[in-house]
Amino acid sequence: MTTTPRLFVTGAGGNLGRGVVESLLEAKAEGAEADVVAGSRDPGKLSDLAARGVELRRADFDDPEELAEVLGGIDRVLIISAPDTPQDPPLRLRQHLAAVEAAAKAGVGHISYTSMQKPEPGSAVPFAPDHHGTEQAIAQTGIPFTILRPNWYADSVFMWLPQVLATARWVSAAGDGRVAHVWRDDLARAAAAALLAGGTESRRLDISGPEALTAAEIVAIVNEVFGASVTLVAVSDADLAAGLAGAGLPAPLVELLVAIDVNTRNGGVATVTDAFEWLTGRRPRSLRDYLLVHRDALRAAARAIAQ
């Protein structure tokens, strides 16, 4: 006799976690068999999900004993990586390791985890060791796993593109490095599909957009989509750091932004795969698609900066 699998999503109050839960509910509406459990530090904020048949449980990575109890009876868990903690760099890895230990203690049958592309030693990204350490801990449990290694979010354009549009300049040290941006909503679909699939095999999957673009190619797309005349300004790592510091950005953020360009230049986010399509049966959406969908909002943000 088969039973309906109980699927647990950590961080369900965040944007990605909420997207995973929504994707699971969509799959259920289309006939998938699953009981969805949403975990959050504050499950009261997810009351609308309860009304749609989602079980809510408090899940706090800083309380591993309670977390092990919360995961009792769960068949498959998705551990969504916690936010970066530059004010306390070791905290995130401690939280992740506590979540992995709790999953193992609870006896879950499959662990999924949202990592990053190429987190192995040697990565220029300061938080890569958090993901590498978490991946190692998951593998050491002996529990079958699905590690999702997403590229940078297309959604991150809201952090830099309005300024670029407002000034008509994009300063970059990424050289000819390429980025295969993925929509956060597409990662959510992939994570939901991995949870639904489960299985006894372990795998690491790079989740990417359909194409990897250089900074120059991204500028060309931006100019086409927005009717803009943005110029790419290529600089050295040192000059980029000096410019960011001169703009008043805090030192940890300067270090991160420079490292992202170094990582791009080194090929850290250039991988394009069909893993998303294999998991979901859909084609991933492109950076151009994202810019077209959010063009009005990005233009409004740029106007606000220029005023």
- Average pLDDT confidence is 95
- Give the strand content: 5-15%
Oligomer: single chain
- The CATH superfamily label of the domain at 6-152 and 183-208 and 270-284 reads NAD(P)-binding Rossmann-like Domain
Q: What is the spatial order of strands in the main beta sheet?
A: 3-2-1-4-5-6-9
H/E element sequence? EHEHEHEHEHEHEEHEEHEHHHHH
Give the helix/strand class: alpha/beta
CATH topology of the domain at 6-152 and 183-208 and 270-284: Rossmann fold
First and last CA, distance:
65 Å
Number of strands: 11
CATH architecture of the domain at 6-152 and 183-208 and 270-284: 3-Layer(aba) Sandwich
Task: Indicate the CATH class of the domain at 6-152 and 183-208 and 270-284.
Answer: Alpha Beta
Descriptive labels:
single chain, 307 residues, alpha/beta, Rossmann fold, seven-stranded parallel beta sheet, two-stranded parallel ribbon, 13 helices, 11 strands, 47% helix, NmrA-type_oxidoreductase, NAD(P)-bd_dom, NAD(P)-bd_dom_sf, SDR family NAD(P)-dependent oxidoreductase
Walkthrough of the structure:
Helices cover about 45% and strands about 15% of the residues. The chain has about 300 residues and is an alpha/beta fold. It has a domain of about 190 residues: Rossmann fold. The strands form 3 sheets. The chain has a 7-stranded parallel sheet, sandwiched between helices. The chain has a two-stranded parallel ribbon with strand order 7-11. Strand 4, helix 4 and strand 5 form a beta-alpha-beta unit. It is globular and about 60 Å long. The model has no long low-confidence stretch (mean pLDDT about 95).
